[in-house]
From TrEMBL:
Pfam entry (one): RHH_4
Keywords: DNA-binding
Superkingdom of origin: Bacteria
Protein name per Swiss-Prot or TrEMBL: Putative DNA-binding ribbon-helix-helix protein
Domain Ribbon-helix-helix intervals: 20-81
Organism: Endobacter medicaginis
Gene Ontology molecular function: DNA binding
Amino acid sequence: MAVGTARPRTGLTMPAAHLVKRSLTVAGHATSIALEAPFWAVLDRMAASRRTSLAALVAVIDAGRGAAPLTSSLRLAALAHALHDRDLPGETP
């Protein structure tokens, strides 16, 4: 194997990560967020399951993220929802 290349040990091939940008207003500020399409899909489902807008869901995640980057917090929230099919800890839909 050449230096600088890595082969996944799982045998899975991962599709190229293409970022999709969306513009939202979060806490009264216009912002552009870039995430991979599968994360947006899960976040859209989360918002729909809560009967709220995507912007409102992002605002909730933003308010609880502390010093963590917003995009990282959004990915983790989407992952938790996808893996456990539940909302963020301590929250109700």
